[in-house]
Every structure is written in structure tokens, then in C-alpha cells.
Amino acid sequence: MESAEYHSALAALAWQIELGVDTCIADAPIDRYAVPASLTKPVVSAKAQDAPAPVASARDAADDAVAAARAAAGAAQDLDGLRAALAAFEHCELKRGARNLVFADGVPGARVMIVGEAPGRDEDMEGKPFVGRAGQLLDRMLAAIGLSRADSVYITNVLPWRPPQNRDPKPEEVAMMQPFLRRHIALAAPDVLMIMGNHACQALLGKRGITRLRGDWTRAHDVDALPLFHPAYLLRNPAAKREAWADLLSVQKRLRDG
Ligand code: URA
Predict the structure, then answer these.
(1) Which ligand 1 atom is nearest residue 102's CA?
(2) Is residue 18 part of a domain?
């Protein structure tokens, strides 16, 4: 197994690449005219050329990170413990670019748990999920069926740190944070999961295609679960609110019947 320095150097390099760094410069300028030609190109030894591709070690690092996530999440005995375990988790490079950990909001132990995708700018600033425009729409949707994060809903995301420029979560990030999400659901023990949008469907159901999936009850991690359109999608496609309303009524009925 490689050292901790290796992993943090690799993560720092990946983060710089993510930010768009494409050139390496030294602290002091180099006068290239003064450097002997024989030194201007690195000499690659036959041994180095035969070395295994770095892909294998990147895969090992990803496997190590998933194993570390499993161990940390599995050791958490309650939601506070899980939050602390996430705060201490150093394998996900998103953490380095985020202002805050966005763990959850609402009522722990509520009958309804909502799973979104990832924090955006507003959520990153406040350290709470769904507080921006999509979150305000989500609050109105919940209010329409008599629910609220103040007293009847618990809310989290697939990823607890904001991806840079709100880009889509990467599959390896979702895989790494999956053990935390699974444990989060087990500890919150909701009766009903509302799965908001494609990325949450991918993480919880292993499939996407929200237009087909929405409205059909299924099971996710042993909980009754309904995929719904993400509120950010509804902001862009107001015509889809009609289906979203039908899905909200379906949640309301399930809570009444159950
Ligand atoms: N979109 C999400 O999926 N989650 C948030 O917390 C905010 C926007």
C-alpha cells in the first residue's frame, strides 16, 4: 500500500488538473539558453519505460478510498457520528475545493428522506442542502402536500461537497461516497425515500432515465422509494411540474396509507 504522502500528492495533482493547471513552473526562472542541450530532455531509462502504467495505481487508490469510506461509514453509530466521519474523510478531492461539508437538513428520523445530487454554490456557502433556487422550489413542493423540513422531512445529497463549477458528479466520486449514503439512510431510517433526479437514481437504484423512472415506486436500500424530477429540472422545464405534482400526491398517499 502506498504512503499517505503519495495519496495526498496524487489528490493535490488531480485537484490542480481539475482547476485547469496545465504547466509546471519552478520557483526560480530557468535560463534555457544556458542549460546544456543534453539536460533539456529527460533521459528515460529502459527500466522506467517498462514500469507499469500509472492507471493501475490510480485504480488501487480508488479501491483504497472506497474501502476507507466503507470502514468509516460502518463505524458510525448515529447521525452525529456519521457527520463526524465524513468531516474527517480525506480521500475525496471535492472536499479540498469546498467551503463546507453539506451533510443534511431537516428532521433526523422523519418519515420522509429526500436525496438530491450535490451541493451548489448556495449550499456550499451555508453548509445545508437545497437552500438555493432549486431548494426554494423544493420547499414549495413539500408545502403543497403538507410537509416541511422544519417538522417532517430530512434532506441530504449523494455528494456532501460541491463539485467545482457545479459539474456533474463523477462515477468514482459517487462510488466513493456511496457507503456514507447507504449508512445515512440506515441511520435515518425513513419510511419513504424521495429520489430527486438522475444522479440520485444512479446512486441509489443503479440506473438513470428519470423521465421513465419517475412516478414508479421501487425499493432502495430496503426503503420504499419514489424517483421524482429534480427541482432544478423543473425550474428549467416548468411543463414537467404536472408530473411532479402527481408524484407528490403519490408520496402523500403512501404516507397516509402507511
Ligand atoms: N441540488 C441538489 O441536488 N442538492 C442541493 O443541495 C442543491 C441543489
Answers:
(1) 6
(2) no
Residue 8 located in a structural domain: no
User: Residue 170: how many CB atoms within 10 A of its CB?
Assistant: 14
Task: Determine the distance separating the centroid of ligand 1 and the alpha carbon of 257, expressed in angstroms.
Answer: 29
Does 49 map to a domain? no
For residue 46, is it within any domain?
no
Residue with cell 448515529: 78
- Host domain of residue 126: 59-257
For a mutational test of ligand 1's pocket, the pick from 94, 102, 117, i.e. the residue with the most ligand atoms closer than 8 A to its C-beta, is 117
Count of Cβ atoms closer than 10 Å to residue 77 Cβ: 10
Residue 48 CA to ligand 1 centre (angstroms): 45
The rounded mean pLDDT for the chain is: 89
- What does DSSP assign to residue 51? S
Looking at the structure of the chain, the number of domains it has is 1
pTM comes to 0.79
Residues having CB within 6 Å of any atom of ligand 1 = 116-120, 123, 129-130, 132, 134-135, 157, 232
Question: Does the pLDDT of residue 1 top 50, yes or no?
Answer: no
Closest-CA residue to 244 (of 216, 223, 214): 214
Look at residue 201 and tell me whether its pLDDT is greater than 80.
yes
